[in-house]
From TrEMBL:
Source organism, top-level taxon: Bacteria
Keywords of this entry: Endonuclease, Hydrolase, Nuclease, RNA-binding, tRNA processing
Subunit structure, as described in the record: Consists of a catalytic RNA component (M1 or rnpB) and a protein subunit.
GO terms, molecular function: ribonuclease P activity; tRNA binding
GO biological process: tRNA 5'-leader removal
Protein name, entry field: Ribonuclease P protein component
Entry-linked Pfam families: Ribonuclease_P
Catalysis: reaction(s): Endonucleolytic cleavage of RNA, removing 5'-extranucleotides from tRNA precursor
Length: 128
């Protein structure tokens, strides 16, 4: 399995994003694991020919915490790379793929090693 992060793995659908961030939704799973708050939603099996075999991901970094776009982009790149390197940790026998949102919650820019450690734990928790 190549270590890439293709367009099909990025969550772009406004409908799915709306469902994922809807307050009080019973279908959305959520947990906090430093430095992320993770929201996940099983993808429906509606269209058999659509590419639903992979998880789709969105990464958010709050403008309220990091005013400069340079800082937000740095964090976003680190989180994306941590996901790309560790997405193989998802269980391959899992029936339904997930739509996942990683919300960066740390108050400062942390090292890639810490981000990767949190990403590994988050992926294992969602995948189980």
């Amino acid at each position: 399995m190549p270590q890439t992060f293709t367009k099909s793995e990025r969550l772009c659908s406004k409908k799915i994003l709306g469902e994922l961030f809807k307050k009080g939704s019973a279908t959305v799973g959520t947990f906090y694991l430093f430095p992320f708050r993770v929201l996940y939603l099983p993808q429906p099996k509606t269209d058999p020919e659509s590419n639903v075999s992979t998880n789709s991901v969105v990464i958010t970094v709050p403008k309220r915490m990091f005013k400069r776009a340079v800082d937000r982009n740095l964090i976003r790149r680190r989180v994306r790379e941590a996901y790309r390197l560790n997405k193989h940790l998802f269980k391959p026998n899992k029936a339904a793929p997930f739509s996942i949102a990683f919300l960066y919650t740390a108050k400062q820019i942390i090292s890639f090693e810490e981000i990767e450690k949190g990403m590994k734990l988050a992926i294992q928790k969602v995948g189980s």
